[in-house]
UniProtKB/TrEMBL annotation:
Database matches in SUPFAM superfamilies: MetI-like
Main location: membrane
Entry's transmembrane regions: 12-34, 71-95, 107-129, 135-157, 182-207, 240-261
Localization annotation: Cell membrane
Organism: Cohnella candidum
GO terms for cellular component: plasma membrane
Protein name per its UniProtKB record: Carbohydrate ABC transporter permease
Lineage: Bacteria, Bacillati, Bacillota, Bacilli, Bacillales
Length: 276
């Protein structure tokens, strides 16, 4: 088999695999969201006899006193606050870790890397948040999201910062720049590619987070978009058409974000890896 034909075969298999893994489930979600309740309960790929997508959307939005709208507000606030804190804290931590070179540096790097391996402990985290009076609060959940995204973001920032010459720091210090002024005036603007990558990837993760809001931010008024899925399924009755309509509505924002900023994600991660 020639090299060109082999490459074509691999690409064809990859495209077919992506269609099966991604587009077929998405098509099933959209198709079920267009059906009536009896047709949706059959759970098949048959085309609906009558398209009821708009009616299903109105029913989902109005359900439980417009709970979905409150959930979108909660998820948006959680995502924006978490990203703002994550970008500032992680970039500053990565700058210090990349620039300092002493005996503690390997240990600090080890503990940051361990954050990617060690699973979060739910009960101790709830106890800590309760002791500092942040349990069931948005700020407490923001701290949890920042802590979970900290290792990944620091590693990306640190790899990218390795390409920034230390001579820039030395020249700024000679000109009278302090630590904070040096970082936010000179270093931070240079981090735009990797910052865009972190914002997009972490925004999708935080917006779609199900477990952390369930444990650390309970309550009907505090529900995020993923928790609204409970509204349409139970032990005895499941409204499949409304459930899949809800899935469709809460999937669209992160999907569009990922599609439009896909090139920035790849550019930020590859640039950081090559320069690091």
């Amino acid at each position: 088999m020639s090299r060109g034909l082999r490459k074509f075969s691999v690409e064809t298999i990859a495209v077919l695999a992506s269609v099966v893994i991604f587009w077929v489930p998405l098509y099933f979600v959209l198709l079920t969201a267009m059906k009536s309740a009896p047709e949706a309960s059959e759970m098949n790929l048959a085309w609906p006899s009558k398209i009821q997508l708009w009616q299903n959307i109105k029913n989902v939005v109005a359900f439980r006193d417009h709970m979905l709208l409150r959930a979108f507000w909660n998820s948006s606030a959680l995502t924006i606050l978490s990203l703002a804190a994550m970008v500032v804290v992680c970039s500053m931590a990565a700058f210090v870790m990349q620039r300092r070179n002493d005996k503690a540096t390997p240990w600090i790097s080890f503990f940051v890397l361990a954050g990617l391996i060690i699973p979060p402990a739910i009960v101790p985290t709830i106890w800590v948040l309760n002791e500092i009076h942040l349990f069931k609060t948005l700020i407490g959940l923001v701290l949890v999201e920042v802590a979970l995204g900290f290792p990944f973001s620091v590693m990306l920032y640190r790899g990218f910062m390795a390409a920034i010459p230390r001579e820039i720091d030395e020249a700024a210090v000679v000109d009278g720049y302090g630590g904070y002024r040096l970082f936010f005036t000179i270093i931070f603007p240079l981090l735009q590619p990797v910052t865009a990558t972190i914002i997009v990837t972490q925004a999708v993760f935080i917006f779609n987070d199900f477990t952390n809001p369930l444990y650390f931010f309970p309550g009907a008024k505090n529900a995020t978009v993923q928790l609204t899925l409970y509204n349409f399924t139970s032990q005895f009755v499941s409204q499949w058409n409304l459930l899949f309509t809800d899935i469709l509505l809460i999937t669209l924002p992160p999907l569009l974000l990922f599609v439009f900023f896909n090139k920035k994600i790849v550019a930020g991660m590859t640039t950081g890896s090559v320069k690091g």
